[in-house]
Design a protein that fits this description.
Helix content: 25-40%
Low-confidence stretches: none
Structural class: alpha+beta
Strand content: 15-25%
Oligomer: single chain
Length: about 450
């Protein structure tokens, strides 16, 4: 289950076709990131570079040069080095990299200053996103100054940001990409199921995180797609809580927002479960509102609808539900118009999903919400968060934080919930957690 060499070639060709006339595109790899002193974080390739090349080494650069007689796709990468490879692992080297990736040419990264300026001379545009790679920014500026000052020069090419062209391509997932995302979601759902089965009062949040990470790694997903959120009690009210160091208490809920990365593609799933395996009456009431709002939003994830329609569907259900519980007073339309609900539901219903967990792609086009189309993949994640000191809120509801999130791929006929294997009804969650209790009892 991988992206084929032919698909990478099609991606590059689509970008070549979309580029301005007489232009060159430059896409750098990620850099290794220092963790502390001489220790580095595990390398993760830049998503744009990986999307176009499939090449997973640092210190690399992809150049697309439409119309170049010797070939339009060039890679600069590290040379083979037996001594360094003995310590850090094998490198492909330029010759093998070109064949491995299906590229026209590959050169040593050390030859960049000798070769790249010549590829830029006489061009009208350089498609490159400034600001993300400062060292390369400075190098390119130096090249352009040299071209500008050269005798007989007609001027240096203009810089155009590459992001709009490339990110529009990445927004539409191929069948192969959806398969990888479905596998990432499947593994992530298994992790959530495992967390439900082992969850019990007295555990620490990081112990549930450990169960998630163990499940991910055991299935071949070596990295989470983002830092796992395991927030119990009031910690569930912190949107990006990652301390994960509190002890689980009976009667509390624990919100688990976690997904793995599988072969470059992310999953993003949230489930909220009762620490002791049983929802209280107040927790059930709020949970059912969030679940109903999520189902309503997913039903609006259809080709032809716009990006905002799923969110609006979730807002209507949540506002009506909060009004029915007495947490909001007034007409539903007025509460929506005034934004009164935002004290309980302060974020939008979802985001694009793909190689990045918050994937690329504009949400508006020419000032209008983008129309949903087959091939797009998104999350749907409404929530209700009631502060512990929320005024005019009955005590039984205070401190409750609930979010439910799934990964949804749009198809020509509707949509497909990739993360459906993670239970989310109250009955299914309680059943799985009670089954986990029986297993734990049998092991004692």
């Amino acid at each position: 289950m991988n992206i084929s060499k032919a698909e990478y070639a099609r991606r590059r060709q689509r970008l070549l076709d979309a580029m301005p006339e007489n232009s060159v595109a430059i896409v750098p790899s990620a850099r290794e990131q220092l963790r502390s002193r001489d220790t580095y974080f595990p390398f993760r390739q830049d998503s744009d570079f990986l999307y176009l090349s499939g090449f997973d080494e640092p210190e690399s650069l992809l150049v697309l040069a439409p119309g170049r007689e010797q070939g339009e796709t060039l890679l600069f990468c590290r040379e083979r080095d037996e001594e360094k490879e003995m310590w850090d692992g094998p490198r492909l080297g330029p010759e093998r990299a070109a064949a491995h990736c299906g590229l026209s040419d590959a050169f040593p990264i050390g030859d960049l200053d000798d070769i790249l300026p010549g590829l830029l001379e006489g061009k009208d545009f350089i498609c490159f996103t400034m600001g993300r790679f400062p060292q390369l920014d400075r190098r390119l500026q130096s090249y352009l100054q040299t071209i500008e000052c050269a005798p007989g020069s007609s001027g240096a090419p203009q810089m155009r940001t590459l992001d709009p062209l490339l990110h529009d391509l990445r927004l539409y997932k191929s069948a192969a990409e959806v398969r990888l995302m479905a596998r990432a979601a499947e593994i992530s759902a298994q992790g959530h199921c495992r967390a439900m089965q082992v969850c019990r009062p007295g555990m620490f949040e990081y112990e549930l995180e450990a169960e998630l990470l163990h499940t991910f790694t055991s299935a071949g997903a070596r990295q989470p797609a983002y830092p796992s959120i395991v927030g119990s009690g009031g910690n569930a009210l912190v949107m990006h809580y990652i301390a994960n160091n509190a002890q689980l208490k009976s009667g509390d809920l624990v919100l688990i927002d976690a997904g793995c990365e599988f072969r470059g593609y992310a999953a993003d799933i949230t489930r909220t479960i009762p620490v002791n395996g049983r929802f209280s009456g107040a927790q059930k009431a709020v949970y059912e509102i969030v679940l109903a709002s999520q189902l309503a939003a997913i039903a609006q994830c259809l080709p032809g609808n716009d990006w905002d329609q799923p969110h609006l569907a979730s807002v209507e259900i949540i506002v009506q539900g909060l009004k029915d519980l007495g947490l909001l007073q007034g007409e539903v339309s007025g509460l929506i118009e005034s934004g009164a609900y935002r004290q309980f539901y302060m974020h939008r219903v979802g985001h694009w999903l793909g190689m990045d967990v918050h994937d690329v792609g504009d949400y508006k086009v020419h000032g209008q919400w983008r129309q949903l189309e087959a091939g797009m993949t998104m999350t749907v994640e409404p929530g209700i968060y009631i502060a512990a000191d929320a005024p005019s809120v009955p005590e039984k509801f205070r401190g409750i934080g609930i979010r439910i999130e799934d990964d949804v791929a749009l198809t020509k006929d509707g949509n497909r919930v990739l993360s459906a294997a993670a239970p989310k009804t109250i009955a299914d969650i309680e059943h799985l957690m009670s089954a986990g209790d029986l297993v734990q009892e049998a092991l004692l």
